[in-house]
Amino acid sequence: MDDIVEIQYNNGLVPAIVQEHSSGKVLMLAYMNEESLKKTRETGTTWFWSRSRNKLWNKGETSGHFQYVKNISIDCDGDTILIMVDQVGVACHTGSKSCFYREIWKVEP
Q: How many CA atoms lie within 13 A of 93 on its CB side?
């Protein structure tokens, strides 16, 4: 299960989509490097690389809204990670359950 070697990092980072295990709702997208992926696997909670702060961060470390990992997959090209989680509280720093709450287009039935 050491598919980490198959991950295709771009400038040391890979996008990580975080999805709620129970509902299938997409919660957020963040970036991971090798260290954050390793820490995620070791701790069972999500760790990411902050491009703006240039440092590792553990989702929930300040808010208490941790993400407990259920499964980690990579896509067919190895250039995107999908993390299925049990989300405690909200995922978005705005207080929304998901970072994808601003609908910009919808096809009506």
A: 5
User: Quick one: pLDDT band at residue 2, thresholds 50, 70, 90?
Assistant: low
Quote the CA–CA distance of 33 and 37 in Å, as a whole number: 6
Partnered with residue 71 across adjacent β-strands are 84
The rounded distance, in Å, linking the Cα atoms of 69 and 39 is 12
List, for residues 31-63, the tens digit of each pLDDT value.
999 999 999 999 999 999 999 999 999 999 999
CB 100 within 8 A of CB 26: yes
Q: What is the SS3 assignment for 55?
A: strand
Question: Residue 56 corresponds to which tokens in the numbers above?
Answer: 């590792």
Exposure string over 16-42, b if 16+ CB within 10 A, otherwise e: bbbbbbeeeeebbebbbbeebbebbee
Count H helices, E strands: the chain?
1, 6
